[in-house]
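Re: that chain you flagged

S.,

Sorry for the slow reply, it's been a week of failed gels. I finally had a moment to sit down with the sequence you sent. For the record, here it is as I used it:
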Amino acid sequence: MPDDVVAQELELLERVSRRLEEIGEPETPSEEPLVQELQRLREQILTRRDGKDAMALHEQWHRQSALLQQLRSAREAPRVDPRSPYFGHLRLLEGGQERDVCLGRATCVEKGVRIVDWRHAPVSKLFYRYEQGEDYEEEIAGRLRVGEVVARRTVSIRDGVLERVEAPEGIFTASNGGWQRAARERARLAGGEGAALRAHAWGEGGDRRLGTDLAGGRRRADKRLPEITSLIDPAQFDLITRPSAGFLAVRGAAGSGKTTVALHRIAYLAYDDPEIDSERSLFVVLSPGLSRYVAHVLPGLGVDQVAIRTFHEWARALRRRHFPRLPHEPRPDTPATVQRLKLHPALGEALEEQVRRVSGPPSPDQALDDWASVRTQTKLLAEVFARLPEGAPSEAELERFADWNRRQNEELFEALEGDEDLDAVLDAEDDALLLRAWQLRVGPLRGTGTAPLRYRHLAIDEVQDFSPLEVRVLIDCLEESRSLTLAGDTQQHMVEQSGFTSWSEFLERLGVSGDAVETLRVSYRSSREIVGFSRALLGELAEDEEAPAATRSGPPVELFRFTDRGASVVFLSDALRELAENEPLASVAVLTPSREASMLYAEGLAAGEVPRLRRVEEQDFTFAPGVEVTEVEQAKGLEFDYVVVVDATPDHYPDRAEARRRLHVAATRAVHQLWITCVGTPSPLLHELASHT
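Prediction finished late last night. Pasting the structure tokens below so you have them in one place:
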């Protein structure tokens, strides 16, 4: 005989299922009469445009349009799925009477069924804010509600069958025609507060926490300024102290200190050459978030004048300086194929070929002509692509690419000739092409005034996500000493259209020997468990035969599966509230596969009253304690004490190279503990974890 908790849930599900069957599919009125009425009104409005009835006809039109929109919205509204009608169950005691309220993905309140949408229903706050046995007093829908939460449970219902119940009394699982009960040991995020920035070398500081001094003084909430110089290991120190002249390319796994080396190398070189600490040095990063992080770290190393820019920010400013008549803002909807081909190394080679073949003055107008011409010459582009080992587009793709650019050229040059009706725009990728055309035809890019733009030192972080063309533009802005630091990891390559394929090919295109690449083999960021898991995700994409060494152990990587997102949000809300109470200085990232998912989880966790919750939309990380919800791509290059990767399903993470790298990047943001959640079937990349849950 099942436990009372299970018996109650079985009885509730049976009652709800029976009532849903009775309710059936709601009958939605036909929209045809409204459509016909709107057509009639439209004809009358057109024929009586200036008549005395025109205003009344317009009012009727708007009224009927609103009714039609309301009808269509009702038809499109989510409906309760009888196969999995709800995931949460509250039993409330108010005024001496008990009633059941269920939380699901849609609302149905009729014939004794009370299922509410967890995202919108005011009563859902009781589920998020209160535990079983607690009294509540809340204003809901304008009325003060006072009562007791008699029962608070989460359930898993699949194909109309109750499979699991989690309650304070225990966890009940259906098995072999019966039910098994296990003690409820809530999965906890714990033990990693302050771990996202390492404060001591391996073997030291086991009792330290971020935000205190060596004597154990007050914790610091801002995590951007650690004393990272004390963390440098011998291999990193050898790279940092290389002579200033020449190239240094640093590769290594996530958390191995590549950015640390690039930052400290600037500080080291500036000690002997004060001009390094000036606008004549440039640190190029991939994202605004990384730019803000570097801008906060460098002053802590005694360097505060170095220019820190994203490549797009740098290139756009220079393109405006050199081609001031061209449109300023880029097109937001460039097709992926166009982006990929404009960044492909073949475009750089074709541009060089164009300048060699076509004689012309070293002028901005000729450089503009070179740029405009080369993008439309399918014959020249096909010849150049044929000489390259891989990545050549099909004939049809190349023709579509040329057509896109022909239309762009027509709009642009007509606008330049004075046609104000045309809203000509460029693709963001054109900035690098235009600057390269200037370098090849006119000469060095200009700094302030007419002086050539020359950098004393250049550092590029996350270089695997830059195209060889973009890096070539930057390198040709260096002084003759060509002091350059490149840092990257092909295993974290996420900008597929950048054209980066391998270190050897990349450096060959830049004219740098492959022997210049140095490898860091110790991962200081993540625990052994996270390092091992994230390497396994890569499969054949792993660069080295052996996994990077890790300096410490931590909790296991865990996978949690749910029947719907609502249950996942409830679970995470409980865990994150507890973490915030126990470790107020912990940093947490909830990493999602899309903006839509970020919005949903941010709203759900806010409803669950997770403290210090922030939705990061445009790289606006605070680097402060709390929970930040954002997409995987936005968190690249950053680190957090705890990471929760949500919605790890086959749709978002199929067994493909780009998905492997994306999930690898997400996992390696975690320092202390990594959780993964999915709704339904887990990604095939998680098969080993999934087999143990």
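What I noticed first: Residues 196-230 have pLDDT under 50 and may be disordered.

Talk soon,
D.
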